[in-house]
Amino acid sequence: RLLIIDFGSQVTQLIARRLRELNVYCEIHPYQNVTDAFLEEFAPKAVIFSGGPDSVTREGSPRPPKKVYDLGVPILGICYGQQVMMQDLGGKVVGGEGTSEFGRAWVQPTEERIDLLNGWFLEGTGREQAWMSHGDHVAALAPGFKPYGTSPGAPFAVTADLERRFYAVQFHPEVHHTPNGKTLYENFIRDAGFTGDWTMDAYRDEAIRKIREQVGDRKVICGLSGGVDSSVAAVLIHEAIGDNLTCVFVDHGLLRLNEADEVVKMFRDHYNIPLIHADETELFLGELEGVSDPETKRKTIGRLFIDVFQKYAGEIDGAEFLAQGTLYPDVIESVSFSGGPSVTIKSHHNVGGLPEKMGLKLVEPLRELFKDEVRALGRELGLPDSFIGRHPFPGPGLAIRCPGEITRDKLEILRKADAVYIDQIRKHGLYDEIWQAFAAILPMRTVGVMGDGRTYDYALGLRAVTSVDGMTADYYPFSHDFLGETSTRIINEVKGINRVFYDCTSKPPGTIELE
Ligand code: XMP
């Protein structure tokens, strides 16, 4: 296994992700925990030093134990990690004016080539794009090191001591803006003797071991939403600790057709996981009566959700942990945006304050994973493909797909119409091409004619978007035939709708949901 020593970079998890993609097992450990004894026990086959926000020129800045250089295994230092390595081994790092470099840089090879860079430089151009983000830079290499790649701002963009198999790069090969960076990791792990035989199956076992270690024989509560993340977290934790897990499924009455039943059935009957079905439809719909402002709706639902969850969770005796399906992108977002000056576009359904309020510790077994990895883990745990591939569904549910005031009638019409729309998409084999598709019932009635009669019914909006992360999105270009057929089916099959619109707004300027 490979050890990543974390010096605090925002993108350390991306290193782990690149390695998992190459089927290498790795663990990230903060530098404070990496002692001589730790190294001995961990016995890494290779080590990576992450980047970090500090400056090695500062007294007392983070360091690895010196012993790491005596293990006889390959080491790769990235950015701050490069500077640490240079300074530890007798080179020189300088900071201050004129030493920083941020953003795109082109790295060129030196005359002498190394295996680490095999296949990395673009054929023909003899250079490759790399992402730099550093304040200090290396001014003199440590003995034994030579430069193998340079950039205008970093003469020592790529350096190595081939004898000891120590490599150090100034840029970040793990980020998206170093497009071919995976090649570097591939070369590095090959040099370290990894065969790339690690799989999600092994990840599952490791995650289970860690949950057991953290929780022991104490009790865990998990808030289940019916979405992929909380479901995968619940099934994984149940495998680890069995019936010491209880799930609380808050049903706000704003779910899609048959959704609540399906969730209950899957968890209770299929997985035998203890589940409390907190059906609080009356409470939620009651409080939402007459509310039409989008933010008030969201805040009302958020507040009730926390109250209800607390009430039901309080009935579980002796629970000490709260499980959450937090993913890595949630972790980065909350780090980089916390306290920032950004405007609130929508207050997202957020149970962030719950653990402190209830005096619970957190279990977040998916914290290191990205969405597609969670899906792979879900498959590993036997969750059905149809469930794992489901489009995201927002916490406030159908409330935000029912612009203006919510009524039970509208919700019922919306559920039926949405089901027909999704059925159409599945039948045409388009579901997996689309990030998210749903119907919204518009706050207007329009005149129509059906048979010989006049109708005065609701209009329905259809939305479908492509996206990679929900942050930006484009509308999905359905064929006219598809739209025509879908509109006909909805109007014929769902009483209460006499007109269908297709939303062809991208995000920005629109958002994905209507409210
Ligand atoms: P918007 O509408 O902001 O949505 O473009 C981006 C993504 O987030 C989902 N969404 C939510 N998810 N709680 C959630 O868990 C919420 O309050 C919420 N609001 C929007 C939305 O469905 C889309 O995937």
From TrEMBL:
Function: Catalyzes the synthesis of GMP from XMP.
The protein's annotated pathway: Purine metabolism; GMP biosynthesis; GMP from XMP (L-Gln route): step 1/1
Gene: guaA
Presence of the UniProt keyword Nucleotide-binding in the record: yes
Cross-referenced HAMAP family: GMP_synthase
Catalytic residues of the enzyme: 79 (nucleophile), 172, 174
Residues the entry annotates as binding ATP: 225-231
Any Pfam family hit: GATase
Alphabetized Gene3D superfamilies for the sequence: 3.30.300.10, 3.40.50.880, HUPs
One MF term in the entry's GO annotations: ATP binding
SUPFAM superfamilies attached to this UniProt entry: Adenine nucleotide alpha hydrolases-like, Class I glutamine amidotransferase-like, GMP synthetase C-terminal dimerisation domain
Protein name, per record: GMP synthase [glutamine-hydrolyzing]
